[in-house]
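dumping this here so i dont lose it
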């Protein structure tokens, strides 16, 4: 039971940055914007969070710094794609490359330093319950925030007037604009939210998952988050389930190596990305389902004068 509890705990920890980054990207894509810069925003959140925690001595300050770093990068993306109407795909890729390079430069002085770990929030009495106690009531703040964000986004998108307007913009920005919905402002807010979530995901990597700074420590998780949004058919609850599935694959390969299973370590390390490709292939086979849920205006530029 102790081993099972440890595996379950590590799966939930590994899935948290995926949930945070993917739920932010889901809101962005629901507004009709495709942000391929999630990886760059996540790695910038990781290095700035680690730097903030080191310089202040507080992991909570580090989390705030990571959030602001992701939000700042998202505003740059929004200015280029929404104001200057630059190509969204090219801009997102450029910001990912910029984030990877800039994070390496910023984090050079922090390599090898011990991290400031975000404390665990133990709930008295509940944390001692066998098996599920530590898993559900002994997690860090960002874990609970990730669950709250999934619940909040699901409620916002499908239970509020503002969520209906955001989905309307994603489905047909021209019609939404004709009805008086502020398309550009709404998309800016969605992009800002997505960048802040990516920054929090990066902060979780450097303050919880691996409390230290390692160059390129996001290791493609931003791309997995993008795939998760498609895997979930742009639905928050499906996204949560998918994130824990990918978390299980990531942790499973580590435990398989620890148990000495005779499979090459390189193959085990590529399992999460192999699973991503497999999921995308399976999704593409049911094109009708994808088209039904996919925002019709996704990645299409909007100019009010046209």
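and the seq i came up w/
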């Amino acid at each position: 039971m102790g081993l099972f509890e440890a595996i379950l705990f590590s799966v939930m920890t590994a899935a948290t940055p995926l949930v945070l980054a993917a739920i932010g990207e889901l809101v962005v894509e629901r507004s009709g914007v495709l942000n391929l810069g999630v990886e760059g925003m996540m790695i910038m959140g990781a290095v700035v969070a680690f730097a903030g925690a080191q310089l202040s001595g507080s992991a909570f300050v580090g989390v705030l710094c990571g959030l602001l770093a992701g939000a700042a990068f998202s505003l740059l993306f929004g200015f280029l794609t929404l104001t200057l109407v630059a190509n969204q795909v090219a801009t997102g890729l450029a910001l990912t490359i910029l984030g990877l390079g800039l994070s390496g430069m910023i984090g050079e002085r922090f390599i090898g330093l011990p991290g400031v770990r975000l404390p665990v929030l133990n709930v008295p009495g509940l944390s001692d319950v066998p098996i599920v106690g530590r898993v559900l009531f002994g997690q860090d703040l960002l874990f609970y925030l990730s669950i709250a964000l999934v619940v909040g986004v699901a409620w916002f998108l499908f239970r509020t007037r503002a969520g209906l307007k955001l989905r309307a913009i994603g489905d047909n920005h021209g019609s939404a604009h004709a009805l008086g919905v502020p398309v550009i402002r709404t998309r800016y807010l969605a992009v800002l939210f997505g960048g802040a979530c990516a920054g929090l995901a990066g902060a979780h990597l450097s303050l919880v998952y691996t409390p230290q700074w390692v160059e390129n420590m996001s290791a493609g998780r931003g791309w997995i988050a993008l795939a998760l949004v498609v895997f979930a058919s742009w639905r928050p609850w499906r996204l949560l389930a998918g994130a824990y599935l990918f978390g299980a694959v990531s942790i499973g390969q580590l435990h398989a190596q620890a148990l000495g299973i005779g499979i090459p370590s390189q193959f085990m390390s590529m399992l999460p990305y192999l699973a991503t490709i497999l999921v995308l292939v399976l999704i593409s086979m049911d094109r009708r389902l994808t088209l039904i849920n996919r925002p019709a205006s996704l990645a299409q530029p909007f100019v009010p004068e046209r």
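The two ends are 63 Å apart (CA to CA).
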